[in-house]
Here is the input.
Amino acid sequence: MLEGKKIIVVMPAYNAEQTIERTYLDIPRGLVDEILAVDDHSRDNTVEVCRKLGVQVIAHENNRGYGANQKTCYEEALKRGADIVIMLHPDYQYPPKLINAMASLVASGMFDVVLGSRILGGMALKGGMPIYKYISNRFLTFFENMVSGAKLSEYHTGYRAFSRQVLLNLPLLENSDDFIFDNQMLAQIIRFGYKTGELTAPSRYASDSSSISFGRSIVYGFGVIGTSLALFMDRLNLVKFSIFNPNGRKIEL
Here is the structure.
C-alpha cells in the first residue's frame, strides 16, 4: 500500500522465460501488493517459470496479441481492487526499481499517468537502443507532439503507471489487439485530458529483450501516424472515432 492505495504490477508476457525471473526479483516488495503476469500463449516455459516463482499468472489459450494481453492485464488488476496499476515488460528492458517513484507520483494525485521515458537524460542510445529505432522514435514523437499539442519526450515506452480512474474511464476495448494499442491508449489519455508525467527510465537492449521486427516496426509507425491524425480530426470535430468516444466500450467489472 502507498497512501492507502493498492498497487498491482502487471507484466504482459510472451516468450519471457529467460528474463521474467530477473524482472520479478527486482520489483520492490515493500510497496507492491500484487504481481500479475498474463501470458499470451508463449512457445517457451514462461508460464512454468511464473508458477515456480509464485507469480500469479493468467495464460491465454491462444495468441491474442500484445494489445489484447494488456486488456486482460488491466481487467484482472481492476478486479483485484488495484488503485494504481504499473505495466512493466518482463524482458528486463526497463528497471523495476523505478516502480516506487512512478507509483508515488500517481498516489500523490499529481499525475493520473506516469511514463518511464527512455529519452529523458539521453539514456536510450546509452542503453543500446538501435539507431533506426531511436531515429524513428524521435520523428514519431515530434510528429505526435505537433499534432496533439502535448509535450511528451516519448510516446513509445512500455513502462507505464495508471490510476484506477484512468483504466476504468478510457474506452480501452475500442483499441487494437496489436502493438498499436499502446499508442492508441496514450492518444486517448491526451484526448480526455488526463495529467501525464514522465521520469527517466534507463533502458537495456540485449539479445533476450523483446522486440518487434523491422517490418512490423514500419507497420507500427504508420499506425502511429494514423492514430495521431485521428486524434487531430476528432479534436476538431471533423471526423469522430470510436477510440475517442467517451461512451465507447470500457472494461466492466
Summary: The mean pLDDT is 94. The chain has one domain: 7-243.
